[in-house]
């Protein structure tokens, strides 16, 4: 994964409420060098990059978004954190259950037959303004026909990281096979909750 060092350093510094000089002391460089990284003029060499990442990943300084990423990766339930954008969703984090049961070990969401409904839901949500800040969340019911019509309640929650990048947190909860679950699974699009709806 390519790291946007300018955004990473700036967002880390702002999150920690540090001036460039204080950040420079923590990672072992000059204030001018931090300024040059933030301006995109230089890329940090390996030792400086490692110091930046160590500071970013320290539980005492980790962002809420980083905590969410860690929570998804270590969740005992099927869930995903997807970055959204013009090229489609990409996996930022995935629980072990999600990777094993739905993604067959791949990190490519669009290439996974078991996630066809996820892709169609995300496409529908994108058309409705998923990334413009008006959608609070959405829900849908999936049926997994590969495993004896197993039903899932799915929740989509749009979020942004400290750099402003758009993501969707996807959680799945198993449902009993019932007429209500079967009817809900036939809905073509997810139910959307918008801000300021009564």
Give a structural overview.
With 198 residues, this protein is of the alpha+beta class. It contains 8 helices and 6 strands; from the N terminus they run H-H-H-H-H-E-E-H-H-E-E-E-H-E. It has helices at residues 5-15, 20-27, 31-38, 46-57, 64-73, 96-101, 116-127, 179-185; strands at residues 79-83, 90-94, 135-144, 150-160, 166-175, 191-194. Strands 2-1-5-4-3-6 form a 6-stranded antiparallel sheet. Strand 3 and strand 4 form a beta hairpin. Helix 1 (5-15) packs across helix 3 (31-38). The chain is elongated. The model has no long low-confidence stretch (mean pLDDT 87).
Please give the structural blueprint:
Elements: H1 5-15, H2 20-27, H3 31-38, H4 46-57, H5 64-73, E1 79-83, E2 90-94, H6 96-101, H7 116-127, E3 135-144, E4 150-160, E5 166-175, H8 179-185, E6 191-194
Average pLDDT, rounded to a whole number, is: 87
Order of strands across the biggest sheet?
A: 2-1-5-4-3-6
Compute the CA-based radius of gyration: 20 Å
As a percent range, the share of strand residues is 15-25%
Low-confidence stretches: none
The chain-level structural class is alpha+beta
Report the biggest beta sheet as strand number plus sense, adding barrel if it closes. Answer: 6 strands, antiparallel
Shape from CA axes? elongated
Report how far the terminal alpha carbons are from each other.
42 Å
| Number of helices, counting only DSSP H or I runs of 4 residues or more | 8
Helix content: 25-40%
Order of helices and strands: HHHHHEEHHEEEHE
Find the count of extended strands (DSSP E, 2+ residues).
Answer: 6
